[in-house]
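Our preliminary data section would be incomplete without showing what the modeling component actually yields. Below, a chain of 196 amino acids is followed by its predicted structure, encoded as tokens that our downstream tools consume directly.
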Amino acid sequence: MFQVRIHGRGGQGVVTAAEILSVAAFGEGRQAQAFPSFGSERTGAPVVSYCRIDDKEIRTREPVMVPDAIIIQDATLINQLDLFSGLSPVGFVLINTSRTFDELGLSDLFTRFPREHLMTCPATEIALEHLGRPLPNAALLGAFAALTSEITLSAVQSAIRDHFAGAVGERNAEAAAASFDVIMKFKEEFARAATN
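Predicted structure:
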């Protein structure tokens, strides 16, 4: 089972991201579940959502305490909450920011997790470019597909188009593809550096 925990703030589409990811997994013939965990239900309050993906029936229903991947939609949460709690030793971290892990004060993560599993993506900027609104959730799902290879970009885009009708769905799918390309470029650069 592959378990994902998504951190963000109310109004950023944290719950929607988990739902779209689960639909993408269903689209590829897998089992999935998605559900949120709310504290204070207001715009700007910290929100967590969860997604599980497996090839067999998923019977557990509790929150994801030992995630295989963490998606952080709002980097301002980094110093407010223990976002990396329980992350698998080979886990993935994807942060919505144009800054590096060093600039975020997170260089210690490089000693705890595989370097190639830790990526940042300017998903808000990509969303602004494609949607005209700072909603990073769909863009981050494209980045997640590239980072983890747990789901395909085409499945993510199909689920996005199912969730958002018409031109909005198409623009979100384009944002996902743009983020996918950003992460693939980082992965290629990392692979080249590792061989030199």
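The longest helix spans residues 166-195. The longest strand covers residues 46-54. Preliminary results of this kind motivate Aim 1 of the renewal.
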